[in-house]
């Protein structure tokens, strides 16, 4: 392995749809870890819708990525050198590595992972941030009860595909909304969703009437826009809408489009609530234990789509998300197989 | 008093801004109460923003008013004749009388009121549906805690003016948003709000930054539209937005405008929740007892604006609301003083 560190940095703030000139490819020698730090050889990078939000210079739950900075990303890799007594060379870890081949990270910000229990990829999907997001968003914010109906948008994505399966684990009816017949078939045939709606080909509000005849008790929204508005017309009384994301709106050039049917919250005595998964960090272990059990007995399927091409492929990988081309968790392999 | 019953009926469904041709003035002999019913001579009618919603033929928390039906309204009046043993001629009562001079109402749907304790008007304002709406919306849905900041839109209206005062009772900072300098001065000088923002003359988001420097913990929204969007930019972490109404949107000809800044709910881990006051009917007495105490010791001011002109003045009275011309609770006197 070379000790040249290839990186992707933010070159300029994108307005509207991301384009290639937002990014700059750079290289520099891999840095040396300081006291309490480790040098991580990055193996896999998580590619997430939330990344688009990190590029905007507005107050949010994390600071925006600065111009000229290495793009923020979660990664999995192996420790190459450590100045933190908790880690040794060769250890597998996960943390915020950024889009680069070598990352110097504070040991306190790294989490060890056990690749004998699950493949490294799983620690960026069902046992990583996607799994945590689905678990706490659905169970803690959405609070589904046995027999209720859970609908999820972006259902074929990393979080959505887990939300529907976790809803089934809790004895709920699971309805997925996704783009394309193939994704919808996968949700029902492979993941056990009770119904799936193709927002490309179907009138979502009408299809929800059939798929959720008693109304939606929990709507887990990754998409926003028209899909959220359609769901608002089909709420059950006392419904909870979990705001996890709004991928349909992230590249909007004008102001985002708000949910024009929000007065359904009044008519249905419903609530819409946002959350940030990092707030649940102290409970990740609890979630991981339960999710690992489902993975082990095959009752939960985590699908990953791993792109090759190294960090140079990152800009295109991110665009795949916004074109809705991925099924399951999208990630990037940083080093050759 | 004549036994001719003058009424206002819905003639056609309005589209967009209400106009006079939505209504038809009719008259017929006052009806005779059947078994379990009472004939009520209506004295005062409540004029409410929610009435606009009752005119739309869409599913809501109550059925729409039918074409040709007497317009639905809450009223206060005296029993003229009773076939219900709980009521006798002369008793003061409140209930859904409709916009007419005489109403036959089921005794079970009437509530006796004591006009020696408070004027009849109060039973349509602080001790009536406005008071109940402010009380349960603020305290049960908004859940303000001592020292937190409560902001309310439509703050000079019947509900808003009570919300701010109740927030002060609970040890909160109260910020009102209203239209016009005169209303704002009234909120601060007479009702004890800590600050008031004139949405006609001020940039609401900017003014909220000054008036709620630590952010808004509870936003009680009667208005929707731009004001709600401005409030969303100033939420404190964990904020609760209480959706009570959206008067800025009720006469919209196109789809309502949704809150385009709703993703603040995610960033601020906040929630937006609707409610319908009728769900709290079993607890009205509890609220009325506490509100009556505040009225008695002068710590809560209920202002009413009573229009004359009888039921014929109803169409114009309702428009006053949507033009924002009222201060406090708007009502209509049905009979001469």
Order of helices and strands of chain A, N to C?
Answer: EEEHEEEEHEHEHEHEHEHEHEHE
Between the first and last Cα atoms of chain A, what is the distance in angstroms? 12 Å
CATH class of the largest domain in chain A: Alpha Beta
- CATH architecture assignment of the largest domain in chain A: Alpha-Beta Complex
Radius of gyration of chain A: 20 Å
In the CATH hierarchy, the third-tier topology of the largest domain in chain A is known as Quinone Oxidoreductase, Chain A, domain 1
Number of strands of chain A: 15
Tell me the domain tally of chain A.
2
Please write out the topology.
Two copies of one chain form a homodimer.
Chain A: E1 4-10, E2 23-29, E3 37-46, H1 50-54, E4 74-82, E5 92-96, E6 102-106, E7 111-112, H2 129-142, E8 149-153, H3 158-169, E9 173-178, H4 181-189, E10 195-198, H5 204-211, E11 216-221, H6 225-232, E12 235-243, H7 264-267, E13 271-274, H8 284-296, E14 304-307, H9 314-322, E15 329-333
Parallel strand pairs in A: 8-9, 8-11, 9-10, 11-12, 12-13, 14-15
Antiparallel strand pairs in A: 1-2, 3-4, 3-6, 3-15, 4-5, 5-7
What would you say about this model in short?
Two copies of one chain form a homodimer. Chain A is an alpha/beta fold and 337 residues long. The first copy, chain A, has nine helices and 15 strands.
């Amino acid at each position: 392995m070379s000790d040249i560190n290839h990186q992707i940095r933010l070159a300029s703030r994108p307005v509207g749809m991301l384009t290639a000139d937002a990014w700059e490819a750079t290289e520099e020698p891999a840095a040396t870890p300081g006291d309490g730090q480790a040098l991580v050889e990055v193996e896999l990078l998580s590619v997430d819708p939330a990344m688009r939000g990190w590029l905007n210079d507005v107050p949010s739950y994390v600071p925006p990525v600065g111009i000229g900075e290495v793009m923020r990303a979660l990664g999995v890799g192996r420790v190459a050198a450590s100045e933190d007594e908790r880690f040794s060379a060769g250890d597998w870890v996960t943390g915020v590595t950024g889009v680069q081949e070598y990352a110097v990270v504070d040991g306190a910000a790294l989490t060890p992972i056990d690749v004998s229990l699950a493949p490294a990829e799983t620690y960026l999907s069902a046992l990583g941030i996607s799994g945590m997001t689905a678990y706490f968003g659905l169970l803690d914010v959405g609070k589904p009860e046995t027999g209720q109906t859970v609908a999820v948008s972006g259902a074929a994505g990393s979080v959505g595909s887990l939300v529907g399966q976790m809803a089934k684990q809790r004895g709920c009816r699971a309805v997925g909304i996704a783009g394309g017949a193939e994704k919808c078939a996968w949700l029902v045939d492979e993941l056990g969703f009770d119904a799936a709606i193709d927002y490309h080909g179907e009138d979502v509000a009408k299809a929800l009437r059939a798929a959720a005849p008693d109304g939606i008790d929990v709507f887990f929204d990754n998409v926003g826009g028209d899909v959220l508005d359609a769901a608002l017309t089909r709420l059950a009384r006392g419904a909870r809408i979990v705001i996890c994301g709004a991928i349909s709106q992230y590249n909007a050039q004008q102001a985002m489009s708000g949910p024009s049917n929000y007065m359904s919250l009044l008519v249905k005595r419903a609530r819409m609530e946002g959350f940030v998964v990092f707030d649940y960090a102290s409970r990740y272990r609890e979630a991981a234990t339960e999710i690992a059990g489902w993975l082990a007995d095959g009752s939960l399927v985590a699908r990953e789509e791993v792109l090759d091409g190294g960090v140079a492929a990152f800009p295109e990988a991110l665009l795949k998300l916004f074109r809705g081309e991925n099924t399951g968790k999208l990630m990037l392999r940083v080093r050759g197989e």
